[in-house]
């Protein structure tokens, strides 16, 4: 995939290259920054349609809303609204998805997950790949740095978020 120079449409699903993956990740990073600015956990996500259209975006709002189920991926999913099918869609997230969010991807048949980083937290992306979900791991230094800083400055909140 690294060698592709442009987006190539295959049937109804957009094939992704590194440049497009990183541009989609930038939307999730904006969401993560927004969450951090609100006093929350800096995890952002975006859901893209099979044709590359941004369907929804969101960030972790567990702290802001007092709702432990509002992860970045679930917020993006909810903001996308009801879709007839999720086949061909791509979930973009700044951090490897936890088991809860990985289950959402499997439950609704989301075809691809772009992961900003899995250094600070290794969630369920390997499991997703084993079950036919295309996983693109970017190892983005900005995502790693943002989470490392957050974890260092907020260890109790981080441990609460990951269930420790």
Give a written overview of the molecule:
The chain has 7 helices and 7 strands, in the order ββαββααβαβαβαα. It has 164 residues and is α/β, with parallel strands linked by helices. A hairpin with a 2-residue loop joins β1 (8-10) and β2 (13-15). α6 (141-153) crosses α7 (155-161). Mean pLDDT is 91; it is low at 1-11.
Element layout with pairings:
Layout: E1 8-10, E2 13-15, H1 18-37, E3 44-48, E4 54-59, H2 62-65, H3 72-80, E5 90-93, H4 99-108, E6 112-115, H5 125-130, E7 134-137, H6 141-153, H7 155-161
Parallel strand pairs: 5-6, 6-7
Antiparallel strand pairs: 1-2, 3-4, 3-5
The amount of helix comes to 40-55%
Helix count equals 7
- Radius of gyration, CA atoms, in whole angstroms: 15 Å
Low-confidence stretches: 1-11
- Range of strand content: 15-25%
Number of strands: 7
- Major sheet size, sense and barrel closure: 5 strands, mixed
What is the N-to-C order of secondary-structure elements (H for helix, E for strand)? Answer: EEHEEHHEHEHEHH
Strand order of the largest sheet: 4-3-5-6-7
- Could you tell me how far the N terminus lies from the C terminus, measured between alpha carbons in angstroms? 36 Å
**pLDDT averaged residue by residue:** 91
Find the structural class using helix and strand composition: alpha/beta
Tell me the overall shape: globular
């Amino acid at each position: 995939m690294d060698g592709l120079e442009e987006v190539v449409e295959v049937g109804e699903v957009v094939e992704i290259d590194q440049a497009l993956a990183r541009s989609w990740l930038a939307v999730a990073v904006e969401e993560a920054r927004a969450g951090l600015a609100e006093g929350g956990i800096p995890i952002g996500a975006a859901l893209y349609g099979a044709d590359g259209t941004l369907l929804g975006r969101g960030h972790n709002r567990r702290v802001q809303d007092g709702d432990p189920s509002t992860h970045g991926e679930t917020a993006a999913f909810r903001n996308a609204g009801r879709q007839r099918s999720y086949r061909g869609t791509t979930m973009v997230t700044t951090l490897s998805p936890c088991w809860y969010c990985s289950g959402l991807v499997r439950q609704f048949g989301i075809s691809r997950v772009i992961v900003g980083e899995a250094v600070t937290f290794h969630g369920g992306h390997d499991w997703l790949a084993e079950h036919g979900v295309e996983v693109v791991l970017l190892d983005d230094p900005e995502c790693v740095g943002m989470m490392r800083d957050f974890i260092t400055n907020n260890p109790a909140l981080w441990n609460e978020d990951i269930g420790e």
